[in-house]
Amino acid sequence: MLRLVLPLCLTAILAACQSSAPEPATRAEPAPEAGRPATIPDNACWTTDRIPAVTETTFVPSGADATLAPQEQVIAPAQDRLFAVLCPEQVTEDFIASLQRALTARGHYGGAIDGEWGPELAEAVRGYQSTQGLNSNILSLEAAQRLGLVPVPRAAL
To answer: What digits encode the pLDDT tens for the residues 12-31?
Structure first.
């Protein structure tokens, strides 16, 4: 039971490190019907995650001596995203080890294959998902399906 709760607690701790306090994650919310992908089953669990803002720092001349001062520009604002995730009972030690192997094979994870959800795995999940447009360290159901870790519903084929 501890191994099921540990990844959720770790995610909550990492979320607390963000610059603003996000809303607490909720599970099993009603799925939004508009724009819902066909690969999401009706009984899926859902979570909300705070996706950090994308910023760019440039250096601009300031003052009479033309020293450079940093200036930060927001390229994409922070946002809360609702997305389907694996339900807690699906995230077993064996599943996490399979996730570690799948991300290692794709060049996103370089840690031990130990079935433990740690900070290195969370960042590997973020790196993998960010290439698909979701900058979150919480594994989405769609990413797990793309990795071949959970089945895709027959209706979506």
So the answer is: 554 544 444 434 444 444 44
The single residue listed with the structure tokens 């922070």 is 78
- pLDDT tens string 68-121: 888 899 998 988 888 999 999 999 999 999 999 999 999 999 999 999 999 999
Instruction: Please report, in angstroms and rounded to a whole number, the separation of the first and last CA atoms in the chain.
Output: 34
Nearest alpha carbon to residue 41 among 102, 94, 87, 103: 87
In this structure, which long-range contacts are made by residues 16-23, counting pairs with CB atoms below 8 Å and at least 24 apart in sequence? 18/50, 18/52, 19/52, 20/50, 20/78, 22/48, 22/49, 22/50, 22/80, 23/48, 23/50, 23/80
**pTM value > 0.70:** no
Q: 56 is written with which tokens? A: 């760019």
Residue 11 contacts by C-beta under 8 Å, 6 or more apart in sequence? Answer: 25, 122, 137, 138
Segment (H or E) for 55: strand 54-62
Q: Which is it for strands 79-85 and 67-76: parallel, antiparallel or unpaired?
A: unpaired
Are the C-beta atoms of 54 and 111 separated by less than 8 Å? no
